[in-house]
Every structure is written in structure tokens, then in C-alpha cells.
Design brief:
This protein is mainly beta. The chain contains two helices and eight strands. Strands 1-2-3-4-5-6-7-8 form an eight-stranded antiparallel sheet. Strand 4 (about 110-125) and strand 5 (about 130-145) form a beta hairpin. Keywords: Signal.
């Protein structure tokens, strides 16, 4: 594993460690009263300060060993806008390396992918199934492909809206484990950048922590 791969692996572990570091009990927790903690208010009904509504976390994406080797990180900052709505922004970086012989007979290929996203999550049926959210998201991704021994690099940028669902398993008021299933509304199977960035499918599955 070269230095870049080691650095990315350490960064991914640190991202997860920061996320898990938020698993703490809230001082105003209502569980002693047999109720779940409020997300935007204290038990006395006072609005929580801005900082106490923030969630920090992220996840590891595109993790593959072998040929190709791939590893990505995706930090997230989210805000509990109301008891049922979360809004947030996130970034992503994915490194992928194909050894010679996988794409070209004698040349390897390196792909760097940078992304940003904004999202809204709304808990729409809490009385039937709590912690299930409608999830809307807008992503933009820049894709750079570099072939060994070739000076020029191929670069493209693509943006797409996603729509789907997220199920959150709360661990504390400000932290949870999230499973997200989204559909790319702008996916184009015949577009090479769309194929490379989104892995040849309009569906996106994600595991994240915030």
C-alpha cells in the first residue's frame, strides 16, 4: 500500500472516530421520565442553542481492496432544524487505482473524485415508523482520470438530484447510524462520466454516522 493509500485509510479511521466520539448522554435527557429526548428543546420547553442542534460525522465510501483499490471519505455537518427535519451539507473524496492490465494492458489508471452535497431529511410518518425520513439531496462531483505515462488527465464535472429514504437508528439525541437508499433522477447510462462517478447504476446505498 503506497503513502497516498495509507494516508486515506488513516483519514477514514479518524473520520469515523470523530463521529463515534459524539455518543454521549445528554444532560437534559428525558429517558428517566420514560420519554425520548427532544431534539430541539429542553424538557422544560426552552429552545436548544444552535451548537446543540449540530451533528458531526460522516462515513467511509467506495472501500475496495485488490484491483482496483478504492477508498473514500465523506464528512457531514447536519442541523436539527425541527423535531422532524434535518438539513445538512457534506463533502467527499474517493481515490481509486487500477493496476496495469485492468483497463490498459501496460498502463495503470488513477482516479480522483471530489464531491459536495446538500440534503434535507424529513421524518414523515413518526406515529407509524419513527426515524424513517424522506431524503432529498443535490450532489456535484468532479472526476479526474490519469493514465500512467500520459501527461494529460481527463476531467469532468456532473451534478444530479437524488431522492429516497433514510432510516436512522438513534444512539443519542445528536448521533445516529443511518442507512440511506437514493435514486439518481439524472442518471444517464450512456454517459461515461455518469457511469464512472455513480458506478453504472442510478441507485445509491450509503451507510453514514451523524
Amino acid at each position: 500500500m503506497n503513502h497516498i493509500q495509507k494516508l486515506l485509510f488513516i483519514t477514514a479511521l479518524l473520520t469515523s472516530s470523530v463521529a463515534f466520539g459524539q455518543i454521549t448522554e445528554d444532560p437534559d435527557d428525558r429517558r428517566g421520565q420514560g420519554k425520548d429526548p427532544l431534539r430541539t428543546q429542553t424538557p422544560e420547553g426552552r429552545p436548544l442553542p444552535f451548537g446543540q442542534r449540530l451533528r458531526f460525522g460522516g462515513g467511509i465510501t467506495g472501500f475496495r481492496f485488490g484491483n482496483p483499490f478504492s477508498l473514500g471519505v465523506s464528512p457531514v455537518i447536519a442541523y436539527q432544524a425541527s423535531e422532524r427535519m434535518i438539513v445538512g451539507v457534506g463533502g467527499s473524496y474517493t481515490y481509486t487505482r487500477y493496476k496495469p492490465g485492468y483497463i490498459y494492458p501496460t498502463q495503470g489508471v488513477t482516479i480522483n473524485q471530489y464531491g459536495a452535497r446538500g440534503f434535507v431529511m424529513y421524518e414523515f410518518i413518526p406515529s407509524i415508523l419513527a426515524n424513517l425520513y424522506l431524503h432529498g439531496e443535490l450532489q456535484t462531483n468532479t472526476y479526474q482520470q490519469k493514465v500512467d505515462q500520459v501527461v494529460a488527465a481527463y476531467t469532468g464535472t456532473i451534478a444530479a438530484p437524488f431522492l429516497g429514504l433514510t432510516y436512522m437508528q438513534p444512539i443519542s439525541r445528536r448521533f445516529g447510524v443511518n442507512i440511506t437508499a437514493l435514486y439518481n433522477l439524472n442518471y444517464k447510462a450512456n454517459d461515461p462520466i455518469s457511469y464512472q462517478v455513480y458506478g453504472g447504476s442510478p441507485f445509491l446505498l450509503r451507510l453514514s454516522f451523524f
